[in-house]
Design brief:
90 residues; Rossmann fold
């Protein structure tokens, strides 16, 4: 079974780090990345179910709990996806 992971990360260096880490885990992980909340809501609405959503708390324009609430609302009525919140300061 392939584990579908959605990475919500605006920083290219952090996104590339995540890509490398998931590649090392093997082909059973499929990582998709979006850079802003608007795109994650579209992706979740059109691309089906993800087993894991990795959410950056420091997204431009929205951050923290409001971003998490928006993702949860988009997933309402779909099978639950674990959400992992990550935050880094350069």
């Amino acid at each position: 079974m392939v584990v579908r992971v959605l990475l919500v990360e605006d920083d290219e260096a952090d996104a590339e780090f995540a890509r490398r880490q998931f590649r090392q885990l093997g082909p059973e992980f499929a990582l998709d990345r979006v850079a802003c909340l608007k795109n994650v809501l579209v992706r979740l609405g059109t691309q089906g179910h993800y087993q894991l959503v990795l959410l950056d708390l420091g997204l431009p324009g929205i951050n923290g709990i409001p971003a998490l609430r928006s993702v949860a609302e988009c997933l309402d009525g779909k099978p639950p996806s674990p959400r992992v919140i990550e935050y880094s300061r350069g």
